[in-house]
Amino acid sequence: MATYVTADLHGEYDKFIKLLEDINFKDEDTLYIIGDVIDRGPHPIKLLRKLMSMPNVICMVGNHELMGLEVLELLNTEITEDSINNLDANMTNNLITWQINGSKTTINEFYKLSPEERQDVIDFIRDFEVYVKLEVAGQKYLLVHAGLGNYSPDKDIEDYSLYELLWMRADYNQKYFDDVYVISGHTPTQTIEDNSRPGYIYRKNNHIAIDCGACFSEGRLAALCLDTGKEYYVD
Predict the structure, then answer these.
(1) In the prediction, which pLDDT does 87 show?
(2) Can you give the C-alpha Rg of the chain in angstroms?
């Protein structure tokens, strides 16, 4: 029985399947995916539907799921003159923001599903966790997509907004907790200034950043085994 963590799959279905092979993922193992399953890559919906068939995979919400969920619900309703007229400024802004951030592949695959299959996908995303606390081999971890924005030692995790947890990037120069490792995605490790291994898992001040830019041409999909500390990569 082993516990693995990965993040920011971004529609890279083939890389995900190869990752499962590389870690020899078994039914008794557990895999946490720390957000951003959808968008950018070629097969986000195919990837979601694969995850829907895997009860030992726990998915967490990322900013891309947060952007897309309301729009996907709109796309699964009958488009009428009334529904168009009822679009408010917030929904219009959501559409534009999501388009800018790589929604095309998600929408294209979503439209190929039946209405019932679309609803199943929506319901699945709605059940994603916002954060996860766990302990493996005596070590405590906090899993969250982006980080703890506006961090304060006086704030409980429940006091953070979705924006702070899913959009605001982690401050790797600040140790949030002495006895808890914070594992996050969202920030490709290629973009971390003092990272001596850009594109690989980054560790500093009890932070573990595991978004290694899977959807980019020189990026890779990364996973970490929490039981052994072993890192896995698929280019």
Answers:
(1) 65
(2) 18
Q: Name residue 5's amino acid.
A: V
**Is the sign of the CA dihedral 210, 19, 63, 162 positive or negative?**
negative
| 3-state secondary structure (DSSP) of residue 131 | strand
Between 119 and 79, name the one with better pLDDT: 119
Q: What are the phi and psi torsion angles at 169 (to 5°)? A: -75, 150
* Pairing label, strands 231-234, 221-225: antiparallel
Q: DSSP for 64-120?
A: HHHHHHHHHHHHTS---HHHHHT--HHHHHHHHHHHHTT-HHHHHHHHTS-HHHHHH
Q: Which of 68, 61, 71, 60 is nearest to 40 (CA)?
A: 68
Spatial contact of 9 and 59, defined as CB atoms under 8 Å apart: no
Whether the predicted pLDDT of 79 surpasses 70 = no
Q: Is 180 exposed, middle or buried (0-12, 13-18, 19+ CB in 10 A)?
A: middle
How many CB atoms are closer than 10 A to CB 141? Answer: 19
What is the spatial distance between Cα 4 and Cα 118, in angstroms, rounded to a whole number? Answer: 28
Neighbours of 64 (CB within 10 A): 26
pTM above 0.85, yes or no: yes
Q: What angle do CA 57, 187, 7 make, to 5 degrees?
A: 10
Name which of 121, 132, 192 is nearest 157 in CA terms: 132
Query: How would you label 2-29 residue by residue, b for 16+ Cβ within 10 Å and e otherwise?
Result: bbbbbbbbbbbbebbeebbeebebeeeb
